[in-house]
Amino acid sequence: MSKLVKKLGARQVSYAVAMLGMLPAAHAQESPAADPVASSSVVQVSGFRKSYTDALVMKRQNIGVTDSITAGDGRFPDLNVGEALQRISGIQVNREEDGRSASVNLRGLPSAFAKVTLNGMDFAAPVLGGATPMGAFDSDIFSAFTVVKSVSAADQSGGIAGNIDMVIAPALSRKEGAFVKLSGEHDTLGGYNSPKLSINVAKKYVDGQLGVFGILTRKEEKFRRDSLYINQFTQLNPTTTPNFLARYKDYYAADCTGQPSGCVAAPGGTGAISKSGVTIPSDIRQAAMVNDGSLTSGAFGAEYKVSPQFKLGAQYFFSNREMKGTALDILDIDYRDANTVIDPSAAPFLHSDGRYYVMDYNFTNPRVYGSMRAQPFVQKSNGLNLKGAYTDSDWRVEGTGVLSSATNYGYQGQLDVRNTAKPLGTSGLGNGVTGRVGLSGGLSNFLMNFNQSTPALGAAQLTGPWTWGGTGNTPTVTNATGDVFIIAGSDNYADNKVKSLKLDVERFVELPWLEAIQGGAQYNKNDYNSRAYRSSAAGVDYSKISTGFVTQSAFAGDFFGGNAGNYLRNWQTVNYNLVSSTLQPTIAGNLLRTASGWVNDPADGGFTSNNFSMDDDIRALYLMGKLDGKLAGIRIRGHVGLRREETRQTVISMDRTGTGAAATFKTNTKESRYTNNLPSMLLAADVTDKLVVRYGNYKTFVRPNPRDISPISTTVVEDPVNGGFTVSLGRVNIEPYTSKSQDLSLEYYNRPNSMIGMAFYQKKISGMIVGENRDALLCPANGYNLGLGNWSVVSDRCVSDLAAPAGKGLNGKYTIDVNGAVNSPNDLVAQGAELTVQQAFDFLPAPFNGMGGVFNYSYTRTKGLAPDGTPAFLNNVSPRSANLILYYETPVWGVRGVYNYRDEYNLPSGGTFSGAARAVKARGQFDLSASYKLTPDLTLAVDAFNLTDTFRQEYEGTAAKLRRADYDGRTYQFSLRYTFF
Questions:
Q1: pTM given for the model
Q2: Omega of the bond prior to 465 within 30 degrees of 0, cis?
């Protein structure tokens, strides 16, 4: 019985912390994912001192490494859930994502490596590709967010980095009460104002045996992000650069025969200084994205205590983010045309990549593109959670059922008007557009100007007759002068369904060192369906294209909040609504209409790779023993367990043969099975009354998001010119990657309500999914039974025994160019350390006794090799991040300041839109929150975000080669909360 008393005591402490503030039940300890075997650090909006004190009590009583944030005064003091989570050590929010999607990295690993759960259970998250967008949920419906950094056998699998549990507290753990909160948000960029309403009610009946609650929120969202892209860098053209030989012959080779990659030749070149040419920024884009829509979320529940031992509960939640008015306006000035004249106005300088660059120049006859892109999206999720629990002095039995579904849907409708570069002619002016570019002075001194004030896009670019590109449903129509009108865009859908049943059984025992034996079983059926389409210009009556389709951009006067130097104000764009209503196409019988209203292009690669379904049937069993005893006078607590999961995966996808309109498709079904055995051991030692040491050793794994691996079967494209086939292999045989992890944590409680802690971790990850294009490694004799003959390796080439056309192929046989993805044979090791210093100054005399704060610092690194032997690294992860939190509070008012810092990190290539691989500049941001009780029932709160007005900047090599900059401005939120009872 003493073991049970200790167990229930820890649980009551957890509930006490959870019941702080207006939404009191934050750490739902009845859920195994929030079991008191995990330690917690809790950050709150109000009641700072008490929340930190209770957090330390939980940390001392519990075992594994876990951090939490809880709602105070019915709100989280951050812009969204992701921004709130980053206050925790080891978490980084990904601000490069548009639309405040706010996915987060955890413990040195990208966002897709973390598992997101709801009340400790799987649920259907609105995931399209990558990780769960935390911005899809209104934080007001949640009581807490718990980050489980070291997982046990009882926790949901799927998080190598850890589990992020979104907690909706059960009805009986909530204090009775009701409040309404009116809020408003003001974004300085664009001057947008957005209202919000939240209603929260909790009530108990039948002498406290029956509890019900309801939370409903509605928020209008309207905010903007401005971006500057330098998408391309290319070399000066010897033909159109004035006085080229006299100025730049020493930077070019005369001939690149036998020279290393990167050599650039020009007639008359000497190569005396360089053989890589002189490079300029040759494609510069100004872009403004307005996100416009609403977020509606709700949570409702009931819980009934049938007897002192038996409880039944039900919860339903939903969240619906509909951003139907989101749009992106782009002005693209492209200087790469062979007829464009570039006249540098600065001397070349040597960059870190070994090339010489000129960042300032005059130009004549560039391509000028105006593009308006409607980009609405919807992120929906809902779920029903049913639970029954029985607990007495000997047993605890819990059964949980989940029915959940989610949708992530969005499309881009792209409409462009393009003034192309023209032959220079005798005037030497081409299309007549001239101006200057200056990037050497950094972002604040950016220069891009036209010499003329007349619009560069107008009637001339919208006058027919028009010619469509034709076969393959191309997006392009061209007029007689070579100007172009574009109809393009992509539709992407993902539907996710989760059905889950779980049973947990715990037997309390009175044995030396053994406190309890716990086991359970779980069944999941997870269904994921993906669809994609690509818009084209087919079926349109081009005679209806009119000069009214172009209009002045709404962002020409305040781009980047005036912080982008002398940006281009001669900015025209497309009147999207007018074009869309005027040019709706006629749909042929064998074609589809996309969501934006245009004709689908079935030849597009995205149509093939992203139309599939993936169903997982998962069966899991686990068993663990809970330990409690003394060794050499030191109390040791912990548990040792094993979880076993069996997965049957069924993928239905499309094979494609050929390209363009001649492509043919067929469905293909592939079934695979795999098993994962996941041992775990978590221990906590109370070394002294001030020192606690924790150790964890466990195995976890991650099922990759289906869209990230595109589980298509195969595409085959013939190259008749060279006598070969290009084969893109499906990825249905990819297995989850696994990790063996170890944690070590030391916590020193130097005075009451204070702590200095240090945590270390290592994760050895096996089976990372990597691209593979070395033909010799993907060349089985049976040729994957594709009907392309028998294959063999000749030197480093893959060759079929099928005869190629005369003079084609290799030795008269078809060559096979193969690419695909494999589980890497090499391990990747992620290591890190986390420092946390939490101090309360309540021992000081007034008024200083209201002060307190937290400082945390995280460091991570990776080690390992890619399959080709090059050093492996992870994109999107900063090696260092830190938070400094200071607060001061009285019984009437409180204020909190937070400074967040994230070190630079790498990003992968973003294709034609974002350019080559690059790094994100280190960034710091200061936020401030305050609250004041106007009356006992009425509270005013004010939050301010990004008071430092910090930009996001990406660069390649060094900051001298800017690739992208984002500006969001400052955001202010105001709220009035009235409590009825």
A1: 0.89
A2: yes
Residues 64, 138 contacting (CB under 8 angstroms): no
Strands, E, within 345-483: which ranges? 349-350, 356-357, 360-364, 367-374, 377-391, 395-411, 413-419, 434-438, 447-450, 466-468, 476-479
Largest CA distance in the chain: 99
- Going by their DSSP bridges, the two strands 360-364 and 634-657 should be labelled as unpaired
Distance CA 776, CA 124 (A): 40
* Residues 630 and 678 sit within 8 Å (Cβ to Cβ): no
* Amino acid present at 720: P
The dihedral of CA 492, 912, 109, 885: what is its sign? negative
The answer to whether 654 and 712 are in contact (CB under 8 A) is yes
Output the pLDDT for position 13: 36
Torsion from C-alpha of 385, 390, 391, 395, nearest 10 degrees:
-110
In a domain, 261, yes or no: yes
* CA nearest neighbour of 700 among 758, 767, 745: 767
The domain total for the chain is 1
The two structure tokens encoding residue 850: 């209201």
Instruction: Tell me how far apart the alpha carbons of residues 857 and 19 are, in angstroms, rounded to a whole number.
Output: 28
The residue with tokens 């209806």 is 544
- Can you tell me whether residue 104 is helix, strand or coil? strand
Residue pLDDT, tens place only, 828-859: 999 999 999 999 998 899 999 999 999 999 99
Residue 502 confidence (pLDDT): 98
Tell me the average pLDDT across 954-965. 92
What does the pLDDT read at residue 664?
Answer: 67
Residues 6+ away with beta carbon under 8 Å from 863: 828, 829, 831
Residue in this structure with the two tokens 């229930």, named with its chain if needed: 8
The dihedral built from the CA positions of residue 194, 146, 117 and 172, taken in this order, carries a sign that is negative
Q: Which two tokens stand for residue 534?
A: 């690509």
Contact (Cβ atoms closer than 8 angstroms) between residue 204 and residue 175: no
Bridge partners, 66 (sequence order): 148
In sequence order, which residues have a C-beta less than 8 Å from that of residue 704 and are 6 or more positions away?
A: 112, 734, 736, 737, 769
Burial 573-596 (b: 16+ CB within 10 A, else e): bbbbeebbeebebeeeeebeebbb
The answer as to whether 583 is a domain residue is: no
Length in residues, the chain: 981
Distances, alpha carbon 874 to alpha carbons 162, 571, 709, 866, in Å: 17, 38, 16, 11
Residues 160 and 702: their CA atoms lie apart, in Å, by: 6
Q: Which residues contact 308 (CB under 8 A, 6 or more apart)?
A: none
Measured CA to CA, the distance from residue 736 to residue 117 in angstroms comes to 19
Q: For residue 717, which of 659, 765, 778, 670 has the smallest C-alpha distance? A: 659
In degrees and rounded to multiples of 5, residue 912 shows phi and psi of -70, -25
**Residue 324 falls within a domain, yes or no?**
no
Structure tokens at 406: 């989610």
Range of the domain at 267: 237-276
User: What pLDDT is attached to residue 685?
Assistant: 94
Q: Evaluate the CA torsion angle 329, 333, 336, 337 in order and state its sign.
A: positive
For 98, phi then psi, to 5°, come to: -75, 160
Q: What is the pLDDT of residues 733-754, one digit of tens each?
A: 678 889 999 999 999 999 988 9
Per the DSSP assignment, residues forming a β-bridge with 303 are 211, 313
Would you call the peptide bond into 847 cis, given omega within 30 degrees of 0 as the criterion? yes
Work out the mean pLDDT of the chain and round it to a whole number.
Answer: 88
767-793 pLDDT, tens digit each: 887 777 788 888 888 888 788 899 999
> Is the predicted pLDDT of residue 483 greater than 60, yes or no?
yes
Q: Identify whether the C-beta of residue 156 lies closer than 8 Å to the C-beta of residue 115.
A: yes
Question: Does residue 252 fall inside a structural domain?
Answer: yes
Select from 818, 738, 723 the least CA-distant residue to 775: 818
Q: For 4, phi and psi rounded to 5 degrees?
A: -65, -40
List C-alpha distances in Å: 947 to 153, 528, 590, 925, 965: 43, 41, 55, 7, 18
Q: How many angstroms separate the CA atoms of 582 and 577, rounded? A: 8
Q: Give pLDDT, residue 2.
A: 42
